[in-house]
Amino acid sequence: MNVEFIFFKNSSFEKYKPKKLRSWDSLRPAELSRIKRPFILFSDRNVVDKYSGAIKELNKIDNFKGMVLGVEKPSYNLYSKILETKLSRAVLKKTSPVSIDDKNVVERITHAFKIEAEDDLVADFNVTSEGLFCLLGCNLKMYDGDLRTFPVFQGSSLKKLLNYEIDKFGSYIYWKRLDIHLDINSIRAEIDSEFRQKLNSQKIKKITGFGSKLKSFRTSKGFSQNQISGISEKQIRRYEKGEMFPTVKSLKIIANKFGLTLENFISSLNSS
């Protein structure tokens, strides 16, 4: 997406503004509505108070894709951030608060849109001492949840959950003491079952030679095609011939028959 980024003059974000990008000194919806490309605004919290009426008008502009709102670090914590985000979704539908102390947030967002990968990269990520997290994607969508519910973190201390770093471009979040890398899709899959099913479906279709690998795996476990209860022999035969891909639900049945989770089964087929 060819997006224009606009930084308000005298805001904390302006010092992070990449060269050649525009600065504005006021918020006039009538002027912004004439911008022909989709645009994203970067500014401070005080803009909401000063231009609250104008910001509401912005939501009516088709090309307005969102506002990145800077919050000072002392008042920036996860609880207020989640609350503010949910309130802003109701009143200012496209507002995403972030810490103004991290210039990498600006770089990640502008870079992501430049390479058209805004849906797949992390802009900002924060965790409380209780293990609750809030993630901002480069597409300005917010996600929140509890890291303690993630299978990969089972048994990990809260102290270790707080020891992480975000990749320069937002490709992943890395917990160094646990040697765990998670990208935005992996995190979304843990908190959104519908997205997890969609992601697994995509992974299945990306397995090279899926049918032959499924057949090899089945025979190595000593099962015949008619021994996969819940799926007909005819369906198994069609999967193995490459005539069709199984649904996530069907592949989960096959994985369970082999004593594996769906994720581990997909991983095994990928590595075979």
Mind explaining what this structure looks like?
It is a single chain. By secondary structure, the protein is α/β, with parallel strands linked by helices. The chain has two domains: 4-145, Rossmann fold, CATH 3.40.50; 196-271, lambda repressor-like DNA-binding domains (434 Repressor (Amino-terminal Domain), Orthogonal Bundle), CATH 1.10.260. It contains twelve helices and eleven strands. The strands form three sheets. It has a five-stranded parallel sheet with strand order 2-1-3-4-5. It has a three-stranded antiparallel sheet with strand order 6-7-8, with helices on both faces. Strand 7 (132-137) and strand 8 (142-146) form a beta hairpin. Helix 7 packs across helix 8 (193-206). It is elongated. The protein starts with a strand and ends with a helix. The mean pLDDT is 84.
Provide a quick synopsis of the model:
By secondary structure, the chain is α/β, with parallel strands linked by helices. It contains twelve helices and eleven strands. The model has no long low-confidence stretch (mean pLDDT 84).
List the helices and strands and how they pair.
Layout: E1 4-8, E2 22-24, H1 29-32, E3 39-44, H2 46-50, H3 52-58, E4 64-71, H4 78-91, E5 95-99, H5 104-114, E6 122-127, E7 132-137, E8 142-146, H6 158-161, E9 165-166, E10 173-175, E11 180-182, H7 184-191, H8 193-206, H9 210-220, H10 233-240, H11 248-257, H12 262-271
Parallel strand pairs: 1-2, 1-3, 3-4, 4-5
Antiparallel strand pairs: 6-7, 7-8, 9-10, 10-11
Helix pairs in contact: 7-8
